[in-house]
Write a structure and sequence with these properties.
With about 675 residues, this protein is an alpha+beta fold. It has 13 helices and 31 strands. Helix 10 runs antiparallel to helix 11.
Length: about 675
């Protein structure tokens, strides 16, 4: 017997080649159709893509519809949640995933009920930690489409994580739009054969819907026709995802257990190129998440202990900004330019708002503790452990010379990084009438120990002696490394290994002939290796706390794909590379500023190692994973039926690592 659980749904990209505004207009009319179909009983059930963001947008414009939506949700006919936005798992960090689910579940419950299914039908790959994340939210079932390896040979299985968590999972290998054939064609037996391969159980899933697809008001009639014309052992049932999983759990068959991540293009494209595309968007939303996680939220707890209330509504709204920026397609950057501009500005606005909230709390806390005295600098540590570190601070003083004294009257170690003189005089047309009034703005490095979730206060004392400046040098050095620039190559000496790594850091420029979805190597590629031999300005300063090397110049590369094919260097990319060494860490701080005026290319940071590694290691939302350096199906992908050529590109959230028995580079 084959029971076909037919689920009416929509897949609603929050934004894509269309903007959020364009999608919202269309959803207004779609939601009216959904409510009409349920009210007139032309549909028994409907699933709103497992995300609350589209419902929030709808109700913000039509709050009077909440009563009707709540009615169908409570009756178990309209299925909403558990997500706020559909994520791309491979590019979204653990904290963001948790907050996304937390907000989505909370808002769905506020409307009457939540669909507790890990529903991600279109994500470009499935992360290894999802079962443990789902279990943490009492979600026992999961559903996805893309990424299943051909070797798994399973449609329904238990997906496990390394902590023992497992969820009963359905892989809809023919896509979340497979059921459209039920509406548009009469080949019912063929359809059932497609969706029931690699499965011997009785219960099978048939989602009926698609991207921004209108409601199928004739679903009941099509199910009746299908049951009349199908084989005797086939029975189509109008249903929903929770009911399907309930039936699946009752099957006597033993489902296999599978673990790990699923990022293979075996039954659908996986678009690994999105993992690194639109880094500007990924960077902005990563910064926003870090400011929320490591600054605003713990600082709000500190402030509460001083009598300042926590503004949870504001914090939640900022997490929604993160979730919208990390939605499937939004996170990948596989969009139109106008959509990416919208995503970018939402991130900028979110950063401004979170920084404004941090600034307000710091100002209120510092003023209340300052006892009316001037010339105080407060350094706050919002984290739940003591920090011994070096902080960079910009201060304003009347004199160029000053010192800092801690609360015990002890002079602390300070180093000047930059100093500039600012005019403070009243502006006059006749400059001779202007008084010589000025002040100094100085960026300093402060060596400090900051208590857990507390602060240290320093007094600025203007003196005749200036804090020490970094000295001009030919190299930068600290306890772990020496870095030199030799004949255009950046060379690293490891004091721990007693070893020089020559030309250890450089850049490579190649063509990109991909579309708005993916990076793709150019058909007539020409890889250009970029060094620093023809730099235009070099600054090397050695300090006790921070040492810095700044290299400025221009790289010449092909301007476009035509020039690359003809091997012509007719494009210019101006760069500024900043390398910093810190007294307290063996991390090398690298910052690259670019003025990109060149088309269709990919610039890569290259780290030259002698590591003999077969695997790379990187972080996942709540763990680490080893991946093969080369994809095992690079040579036979056509023969085994992959839907696209695989690449060796792999995702990372915050860390990528190569190591062997001798060395480790991250």
């Amino acid at each position: 017997m084959k029971n076909i659980y037919t689920v009416a749904h929509t897949h609603w990209d929050y934004e894509w080649y269309f903007t959020r505004q364009e999608a919202r207009v269309q959803f207004i009319f779609h939601m009216d159709e959904v409510l009409e179909a349920l009210e007139t009983n032309q549909l028994d059930f409907y699933t709103l893509d497992g995300q609350m963001s589209i419902i929030e947008d709808y109700l913000s414009l039509f709050p009077e519809k909440e009563v009707e939506i709540r009615k169908f949700v409570k009756e178990g006919r309209l299925f909403i949640g558990p997500w706020f936005t559909q994520i791309d798992e491979m590019t979204t960090s653990g904290e963001s995933i948790i907050r996304n689910l937390k907000i989505g579940i909370s808002e769905a419950k506020a409307l009457g009920n939540v669909m507790r299914v890990g529903y991600l039908p279109d994500s470009f790959g499935q992360g290894q930690d999802m079962p443990k994340i789902y279990q943490g939210f009492d979600i026992q079932h999961a559903l996805f489409w893309r990424g299943m390896p051909k070797e798994a040979n399973a449609r329904y299985f238990y997906w496990t994580s390394n902590d023992g968590s497992k969820v009963l999972t359905a892989n809809i290998k023919n896509g979340y739009y497979a059921g459209v054939e039920l509406i548009e064609q009469n080949k019912f037996d063929e359809l059932v054969e497609k969706i029931s391969t690699q499965a011997t159980n009785e219960s099978h899933l048939l989602p009926v819907g698609g991207d921004q697809r209108a409601v199928d008001f004739d679903l009941k009639q099509r199910i009746t026709l299908a049951n009349a014309e199908s084989k005797d052992n086939i029975h189509f049932i109008e249903s929903n995802y929770p009911a399907f999983f309930k039936a699946l759990e009752k099957e006597s068959i033993e489902f296999p257990e599978l673990s790990g991540e699923f990022i293979e293009p075996s039954d659908s494209k996986i678009h690994r190129g999105i993992y690194s595309s639109r880094y500007d968007l990924k960077q902005i939303y990563d910064r926003l998440e870090r400011k929320l996680t490591y600054q605003l939220e713990p600082l709000s707890v500190v402030a509460k202990n001083y009598g300042i209330s926590v503004k949870q509504g504001l914090i939640t709204s900022l997490w929604k900004v993160v979730a919208r920026g990390q939605a499937h397609d939004s996170a990948g950057g596989c969009n139109s330019d106008k959509t990416n501009q919208d995503i970018y500005m939402r991130g900028i606005n979110g950063l401004q708002e979170v920084q404004a909230c941090i600034d307000y709390l710091l100002r209120k806390l510092s003023i209340s503790l300052n006892e009316g005295q001037d010339n105080k600098v407060f350094l706050w540590n919002p984290l739940p452990f003591e920090l011994t570190t070096i902080r960079k601070v910009e201060i304003s003083t009347k004199m160029s010379n000053f010192s800092l004294v801690d609360s015990r009257g002890k002079n602390i170690n300070v180093e000047i990084l930059n100093q500039r003189r600012e005019n403070a005089a009243l502006l006059r047309r006749n400059t001779k009438m202007m008084k010589d009034e000025h002040y100094f703005v100085t960026e300093i490095a402060i060596e400090c120990s900051l208590p857990s979730m507390g602060y240290e206060c320093y007094e600025i004392q203007e003196t005749v002696e200036n804090p020490p400046k970094r000295i001009r040098a030919t190299e930068i050095s600290n306890e772990w490394y020496t870095i030199q620039l030799k004949k255009g190559q950046i060379c690293l000496y490891s004091k721990e290994l007693d070893k020089w790594c020559h030309n250890f850091l450089w850049f490579e420029d190649g063509g990109d002939e991909g579309d708005t979805y993916d990076y793709s190597p150019a058909f007539n590629d020409w890889i250009v290796q970029l060094d620093f031999e023809n730099y235009e300005h070099l600054s090397i300063e050695q300090g006790e706390l921070i040492s810095r090397m700044v290299i400025e110049g221009s790289w010449t590369v092909p301007y476009n794909l035509i020039s690359r094919k003809e091997k012509i260097l007719d494009g210019v990319v101006n760069y500024e590379l900043i390398l910093e060494l810190n007294k307290y860490t063996n991390l090398i701080d690298v910052k690259l500023n670019l003025d990109n005026q060149v088309l269709d290319h990919r610039l890569r940071l290259m780290i030259e190692t002698e590591t003999n590694a077969a695997f790379s290691t990187s972080d996942t939302p709540f763990g680490v994973i080893q991946r093969p350096i080369n994809d095992e199906h690079l040579s036979d992908w056509k023969e085994i039926g992959y839907k696209e050529e695989p690449t060796s590109m792999r995702p990372m959230l915050h860390v990528a690592n190569l190591h062997d028995e001798q060395e480790s580079w991250s």
